[in-house]
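Request: Not sure, any thoughts?
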Amino acid sequence: MLPLIYTNVWAFTLFLAACLIWNAPETIGMLRQRSRVARKEATSQDHHSMTILIGLQMLGLALNFLLAATIPQAAITWQRTALLLVGVGLILLGVAFRWYAIRTLGAYFTRDVAVSAQQPIMQRGPYRYIRHPSYTGTFITMLGVGVATANLVSLLVLLVCVLAGHLYRVRIEEQALAQTIGQPYIDYMRRTKRFIPGVV
């Protein structure tokens, strides 16, 4: 069975609207950050992690939509309309949480890994409990895409690709922060989880 977003106009329109709400500010934010002068005291230690992260996310999304069309026997047929609405809700919730985290971090948010020894360790808002709340927001959004697609195989492949990209990115980012900021960041790492409070 094909996903509802492939066969129903209103379902596709709703899903597309949620995806536009997700991607429009991301695109604008990326363009704005590229147009600004980087913090002079910060050094880039990205090691291509942004390219790898975006590449794996795009691969996961492409496979999600392809597999949902080519492996219909893996479709989730239970409560398809409810799944679509839950998926769209998760997309929007993830977007809201990601931008809450970005706003909290303020000028120290960068899309590449750029750190400085004078950079404060953010411990307000979601950063009090997790180290990478903007990535948590992305996970929630991607989960929403998979749920809205309503196919077990495509959902699993999407989440594996997204997780793989973020684990590499986080390893590079935390290594750079620990080496540059030192013991205060190492202590912060010991007190907090990466993505989910009290879990992981």
In short: Residues 4-11+49-109+119-191 form a domain with the Four Helix Bundle (Hemerythrin (Met), subunit A) fold (CATH 1.20.120.1630). The two ends are 35 Å apart (CA to CA). The mean pLDDT is 89. The chain has one domain: 4-11+49-109+119-191.
